[in-house]
Amino acid sequence: MHALALILALAVQEPKTETIAIPGTDLKFDMVYVPGGKATLGSPPGETGRTSDELPPHEAALQPYWMSRTEVTWEAFVKYFENRKAFKVDGVTRPSPPYEPPHGKMGVGAHPAVSMRWHGAMGYCEWVSTLTGRRFRLPTEAEFEYATRAGSTAAAPANPDDVAWYDANAQKKTQLTGTKKPNAFGLQDLSGNVWEYALEYHSGPDYDPVLRGGSWASPREELRFAARMQIKPEWYDRDPNRPRSVWWLTDGTFVGFRLVCFAAAPKKDQDAYVAKVKVTELKVKEGTKGNGRVSGTLKNAGDKALDEVELTVYYVDDDGKPIFEDNKARPSFSKAWPVLVNSDHPGDHARPLKPGETRAFLLDVPQPFDVDTEPTKVGARVSALQFSK
Question: How far apart are CA 202 and CA 182, in angstroms?
Fold first, then answer.
């Protein structure tokens, strides 16, 4: 019923769009308004092509948001690459010269940028946020699937050749963004062209990025709305950097991303409220795969309810200085979202954080190596938040 009402509403409404200019550059990109609402996401056990890690059918309720019309392009990502030194971004989120982007024959200009790691995609979001004074981030899995479905209750696009570049028509490479038909929301390339990063990790407290949407190399069944994929270790196999780069997925020429933004309070107002969100009871013990498992408590000590809180958690040296990377440029920080109402992952994080309320969090943070002293303490800061409406 909810989906039918959404489809009927979309049939009589033109997509609402906004063009964003990035100050100090000649770059512009379009954001499309995605109306909030309820929809059934996930896939049933009998769906053709379904994998065991997909979420079962469930109803999700989402707040409205804005999403970039297409994926981030090479011309935009390269501008970030060239201007990385002019902005304060955590060390591992910016390119590491003198290495060049490993896109090979995937195209330049308005082709989707590919092969960056999750840290790089997050760094680009931070760069755009810094320049525009608005907060941009990656979409949650629920936001991505909701936007891709655009009211559809089917398993996949009915006519994939109309909306997607995939293995049957992409000629084994990416294609120019925005050249396929938009969906009912006015968004393009959500199916095919490149797999796109989601904000949350795949599962549990581990750092484990997840991708949605399918790519130029995908068979038709990977274009299903509920399909998801984890980053695979073999995508690093031909990395020429030793140690492996924390910047590029050398064999991930089918991995890209797009942006999400909220039409809410200005970023400066959100940043001012950060001091009222307290992080306490930080503890670290041995985690998995060379990580430390960090736990703590978040408290909203202000007077506003929060729909979203992003934490950056890191190790600190003997002087209390954050260690965002070790001496071999490997990351030693991670991010957590104790509050993320537009997530459909199970947990308390999907509820707003009311004034005076506390919430526990747990995540794994990569341990730094090759540092002067072995850090045994961790720190955390609120790196972004979103007020409730």
Answer: 28
pLDDT per residue over 304-316, tens digit each?
999 999 999 999 9
Of 271, 263, 202, nearest to 230 by C-alpha is 202
> What pLDDT, in 10s, does the model give residues 56-96?
999 999 999 999 999 999 999 988 877 765 655 554 555 54
Q: DSSP string spanning 322-376?
A: EESB-TTS-B-EEEEEEEETT--SSSGGGS-B-TT-EEEEEEEEEPP-S-SS---
Q: Which of 33-37, 115-119, 221-225, 361-365 has the lowest mean pLDDT?
A: 115-119
Amino acid at 264: A
pLDDT tens-digit map of 345-382: 999 999 999 999 999 999 998 888 766 666 778 999 99
C-alpha to C-alpha distance for 224 and 221, rounded to whole angstroms:
6
Residue corresponding to tokens 């270790």? 233
Q: How many CB atoms lie within 10 A of CB 24?
A: 11
| Structural domains for the chain | 2-261 (3.90.1580.10), 273-387 (2.60.40)
Q: Is the pTM of this model over 0.85?
A: yes
* pLDDT at residue 239 tops 90: no
Who contacts 335 (Cβ-Cβ below 8 Å, separation ≥6)? 122, 310, 311, 312, 313, 363, 383
CA distance 301 to 68: 33
**Residue 303 structure tokens:** 């007077």
* CA–CA gap between residue 209 and residue 229 (Å, rounded): 9
Sign of CA dihedral 252, 365, 125, 191: positive
Q: Which runs of consecutive H residues, i.e. helices, occur in the chain? A: 2-11, 74-82, 118-132, 141-149, 160-163, 267-273
Q: Please list the alpha-helical segments (H only) found in 241-292.
A: 267-273
The rounded mean pLDDT for the chain is: 87
